[in-house]
Structure to design on (289 residues):
């Protein structure tokens, strides 16, 4: 009997739920507390350290390349100096402690210890079995890490694998579309689903002048209108980018199968909704303004 075909956007929907839970870690006060205890106190240094630690004590060039949408000048202010403060191994251990505390706070002890959490972890790890290392540095580095024994930490680990797998492929598609790091962010913000300009400028190291110059380049290509919204051509390009990202990221979800993807999406949505309801994200994080 032929297995049911996966709906084209099923993997994207599943990823979005998993990524929502994963992303709570970047806004969790527990992360700043744990990294601060190591001597890493600047918010940008914390971000670079926790996401790049799996790569080892790499330099600024490697982090800028892997992260894609951060200004290199900002990265170079903190990397590789951060590794003189704490080793990547210590940072990864601190992140695990922070994630443990944050998930317990956001989801509650019952959810953390629930059969549903164990089920979600198993499904997400099974999907990750089909991820590919080729040309995916952040995914591949995290794939070298041991899977935690606790279900909620195993789930977070699996969401990290699936997030970085899709993200690495997404960057290749952005390059193919001719969008540099900031142009990619500007077009994403213009969809209304990305970070607000305030958050981009605060966290990515770009200036208002950089943003305006990128917007001008996009207008010159016919992708952005005078009000900062996407033109019809811009909308088409963003959808093409997401569809091609879906194609490059299809293997994990095909491996999991239709029923598995549906169930993982359902469980992931429940955890993500609970985290959002508990105040996991700043209220002004997303939008065009």
């Amino acid at each position: 009997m032929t297995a049911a075909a996966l709906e084209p956007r099923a993997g994207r929907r599943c990823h979005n739920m998993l990524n929502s839970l994963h992303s709570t870690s970047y806004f969790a006060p527990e992360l700043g507390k744990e990294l601060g205890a190591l001597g890493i106190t600047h918010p940008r240094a914390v971000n670079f350290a926790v996401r790049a630690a799996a790569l080892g004590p790499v330099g600024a060039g490697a982090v800028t390349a892997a992260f894609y949408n951060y200004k290199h000048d900002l990265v170079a202010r903190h990397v590789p100096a951060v590794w003189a403060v704490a080793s990547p191994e210590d940072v990864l251990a601190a992140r695990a402690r922070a994630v443990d505390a944050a998930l317990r706070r956001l989801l509650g002890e019952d959810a953390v210890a629930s059969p549903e959490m164990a089920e979600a972890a198993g499904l997400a790890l099974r999907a990750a079995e089909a991820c590919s290392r080729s040309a995916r540095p952040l995914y591949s580095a995290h794939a070298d890490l041991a899977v935690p024994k606790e279900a909620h930490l195993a789930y977070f680990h699996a969401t990290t694998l699936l997030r970085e797998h899709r993200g690495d492929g997404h960057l290749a598609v952005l390059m193919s579309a001719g969008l540099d790091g900031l142009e990619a962010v500007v077009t994403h913000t213009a969809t209304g689903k990305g970070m607000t300009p305030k958050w981009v400028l605060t966290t990515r190291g770009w200036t208002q002048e950089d943003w305006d110059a990128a917007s001008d380049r996009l207008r010159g290509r016919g992708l952005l209108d005078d009000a900062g919204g996407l033109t019809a051509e811009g909308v088409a390009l963003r959808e093409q980018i997401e569809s091609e990202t879906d194609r490059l990221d299809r293997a994990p979800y095909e491996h999991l199968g239709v029923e598995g993807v549906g169930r993982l999406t359902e469980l992931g949505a429940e955890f993500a909704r609970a985290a959002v309801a508990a105040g996991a994200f700043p209220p002004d994080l997303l939008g065009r303004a």
In short: The first helix runs from residue 10 to 23. The chain has a mean pLDDT of 97. The CA atoms of residues 77 and 103 lie 31 Å apart. The radius of gyration is 19 Å.
